[in-house]
Amino acid sequence: MSEHEYETASLVWRKSSYSNGQGGQCVETAVLPDGGRLVRNSKKPDGPAVQFTAGEWSAFISGLKAGEDL
Fold first, then answer.
1. Which of the listed residues 4, 36, 42, 63 has the most CB atoms within 10 Å of its CB?
2. What is the value of pTM for the model shown?
3. What does the pLDDT profile of the chain (70 residues) look like in tens digits?
4. Cα separation, 19 vs 41, whole angstroms
C-alpha cells in the first residue's frame, strides 16, 4: 500500500462478475474512503492488494472501456 494502511476487513469487497466457482478469474475490489480502489485475489483475501488512487482507477477503467491493452 502507498501512504495509507487500510483495515481490509472493514472494507466492502465486491467480486468481479467474471469470477466464478470453477476456478476462473478471481478478482475483488473495494472502494477506499478517498475514492481510490484496492484490488485483490478473492481466493487469497488475506494476501496482498494493489492500491489505485481515484485518478489511476478512473484512467484504468476508461482504458478498458476504450479497448486498450493491459
1. 36
2. 0.75
3. 444 566 766 899 998 777 666 666 789 999 999 999 999 998 888 889 999 999 999 999 999 899 988 6
4. 10
